[in-house]
Amino acid sequence: MLQIAIRLCCGLALLLSQVCQNQAVAQNQTAISNSVDLALIKELVRKASQLLREGKVVESVDAVEQSTIRIQELTQNASGQELSEIKKIHVELTKAHQLLSVEGAELTNLPTWDALLKEKKLNRSKKEDEKKPVPLPSSQATISFSRDIAPWMVEQCSRCHINAERGGFSLATYTALMKGSKGGVVLFPGDPVGSRIVESIESGDMPRNGNKVSAENFAKLKQWIKEGANFDGPSQGAPITSLASSKPAEAAKPTKAEPIKTNAPTGKETVSFARDIAPILIANCNGCHYAATRVSGGLQFNLFSQILKGGDNGSIVSPGKPDESLIVRRLQGVEGARMPMGRPALSDSQIQLVATWIKEGATFDGQNKDARLDQVVGKAFADKASHTDLMAKRIERAREKWKVASPKSEADEAIDDQFHVIGNIGTENTKILLAQVNKAANQVRQMFKVSGKAPLIKGGITIFALKQRYDYSEFGKMIESRALPPEWSSHWRSDVLDSYVAIVFDKAENKINESSLLQQLTSLWMSSHEGVPRWFADGAGRQALTVAVGDNDARVQPWLRRLPESMLQLKNLKSLSDGSMNDEASATIGFGVIRKMHVAKMKTQYDTIVRSLASGMSFEQATMKTIGPIDAFLQKLLGKK
């Protein structure tokens, strides 16, 4: 009897040991998976910052949206030790959301850290319910998955959810269907009312190709779910296409539309794409077609060229034929679900603007059909606006940026008719800095023989004045999503609606302030002319400072020392022109080029290029007239192809 008891105890011990080993393996696998996800989110957040620094707002939004989804999922499965690391990423992601909001992007809401922890606690209590097994096939079921459900799913859902996995939701197999999407389970056996898939079809949200599920098939779906969502095939993991009892119809392929030519305006149009249509699309289509993480129906509105291209259903614009244009019909709600989906319908006057624009030829009056829509809108405003109106817009944007850069600091400001100083250096110091800015601007005018009557730059220039290097560093992180080089104490930035200098202000160093402002204002002035590359503008600014202070200045000496090292980083001329080099290396090479052009007869060529730019020539025209093709010139000067 004792031997039997001993054997029984040994057996139980062995069984318990095996169970513990299995649990340990499962926990280890979860930890590895979480570690991979954690690294991926970190990389996505870093990538988002880099893309925003490069001015690629749409791509940055995509990376942030992916991070927002993943961090919510990861938090739910994380251990206590992992949560502390995730919390740090959540802080950086929150900053990214704030920065992109300043750029006008509309993002999926990022829950607060407390809200994520609360959701984690609630989900813990639901886990057992979610693990309930799918009901087995019932002999009393009247609806067959293979015969009644699979065929129309294959026909109507293949493009997005069988051949692809839009929204993280796959219908490739019965198992995938029951698993649901990234947002959770979409089908609850026995409960058609509570099943998200029923709600999506009933609301018209799905399918998104306008080809609605028939009333008969929809009724079958609800009845099938009510009966327990029973499976009657050989294997739940088999491809859904193989389960249909009859050969499923191929997913309809959109007819390939003929390329649509971009029509230039004739001057007789009453509706402008840049001023009237693009703002409507940005305001009403964001998240689904504009600045979207997952584009609906393959249709993107980020660029004008994408609007002409259309989506999965082909072209949406038929120039001259608004009644035949899908975009108008969807906005009116006469074909498929009314757009924008899930939002208030456009007003009759807005829809009429779109229809009139198409009737008048769907012309493009922007500068570049491959520019982002927000840039098209900004350029249209800037071109038409007076100096005063554009400056008012820049002041408004500068104040918004300051709230992000220093939310706890009340801004000190000083303004005249050309410059707006804003920062945390005190009211009196902003007035002092404003005077220094004007003195530096006069030096730019004298150096490049710029007329003193017109503003140095239309719309004026903002000067962000920072009290200390820490504030300057935070400005770079919060506003430009980048770590500013440690040797910098000032820099410039110019975009369609932004033209600013950021500088660390030192009241005791007037001459340093003025010479730094001379450098940055020179670069800004150069960049304000058509087609001037950043390396040229940076180089011109550094050379202007060198002329003013001499080669022995503490700022100039490092540039001269770094020039050979920067040349080694220059693999080819393309890396200089496309902005793929880091800012400091590119600026240093630009400085080297302009410095060489200040020697002997090349100084005359440089002055001629600058005068040509000031007269209204593009950079390409100015250089072609003076030194020939810029690539050939640089190849000879730098010894790079």
Can you tell me about this structure?
This protein has helices at 2-53, 57-77, 80-102, 113-130, 145-162, 174-179, 196-203, 215-226, 240-243, 273-285, 304-309, 326-332, 348-359, 373-384, 387-405, 427-448, 469-480, 510-527, 534-549, 556-569, 573-577, 583-597, 602-614, 619-626, 630-638, and strands at residues 412-415, 419-423, 461-466, 490-494, 499-504. A hairpin with a 4-residue loop joins strand 4 (490-494) and strand 5. The protein folds into five domains: 28-126, Methane Monooxygenase Hydroxylase, Chain G, domain 1; 145-243, no CATH class; 273-281 and 295-383, no CATH class; 387-524, Collagenase ColT, N-terminal domain (Glutaredoxin), CATH 3.40.30.160; 529-641, no CATH class. Strands 1-2-3-5-4 form a five-stranded mixed sheet, sandwiched between helices. The longest helix has 52 residues, at 2-53. By secondary structure, it is mainly alpha-helical.
In short:
With 641 residues, the protein is mostly helical.
CATH architecture identity of the largest domain = 3-Layer(aba) Sandwich
Helix/sheet category: mainly alpha
Sketch the topology as an H/E string, one letter per element: HHHHHHHHHHHHHHHEEHEHEEHHHHHHHH
CATH superfamily of the largest domain: Collagenase ColT, N-terminal domain
Flag low-confidence runs.
1-30, 128-134, 245-257
Question: How does the major sheet shape up?
Answer: 5 strands, mixed
Helical stretch count?
A: 25
CA radius of gyration is: 31 Å
Helix content: 55-70%
Q: Indicate the CATH class of the largest domain.
A: Alpha Beta
Distance between the amino and carboxyl termini:
91 Å
